[in-house]
Hints:
Layout: H1 2-12, H2 19-29, H3 45-57, E1 62-66, H4 70-82, E2 87-92, H5 95-107, E3 114-118, E4 121-123, E5 131-133, H6 135-141, E6 148-153, H7 171-177, E7 178-187, H8 192-205, E8 210-213, E9 216-221
Parallel strand pairs: 1-2, 1-6, 2-3, 6-7
Antiparallel strand pairs: 4-5, 7-9, 8-9
Helix pairs in contact: 2-3, 3-4
Amino acid sequence: MNFLFYKALGKLFNFRNEETPSFLLHELVHQGENYLPFTTSSLKFRALASICNDLVVNQREKYLEFGAGLSTVIVARLIQKNGLKAHIYSVEEDKGWIDYIQHIIDKEGLTPYVTLFHLPTKPSTSLAQAYTYDFETLRSQLDPSLQFDIILVDGPAAWEKHKLNSRLGNAPFIAASIASEATVFIDNANRTGEKKLVTRLSQDFQVKPIYIDPTFAVLVKGKQYNFIL
């Protein structure tokens, strides 16, 4: 009875176990002169700390994120603070939001570490209930030899019913541009479309997903040092 109770309680409170990660990230969060407005839409601290750990301990260099956000700023600060060789390639559909993130990046002198791509979405021709990025445009703006060794899937928007499979549309691009040793982080992994994405990439890479919590999945391709918090 107690086990079932705590299991149910854990599903209700997905923001549990955030104290240690938030403590570890405290300096990065408050490093700049800008207040960063964390909300329920932001990555949880445990997920963000695991991404930062992976960048540092596994010396990742090419970081692709679908969905720009406050995590973009935090990771850019980490790259600067630790003198990492990493660079962030961030894809975002919302022009107003990407302008806001770009403003912070520029104001804090983080521009050398971040390249932002504004890519509006359009109805998918191959997936039902999906709006996907214009990947042909993205490919035309990237070095064709570029392979990403760390990827975050937190976009495009997929919370509305007619867009629930939108993030599944990222799968072909990820499979074609991922390095032989890499990590893929998937937010909202408890939702229908994201579950399909986890299954698809697990099959593509022949690995089992790791769940940091019920809403955040990690796929590790190749060898790596432990980074999970």
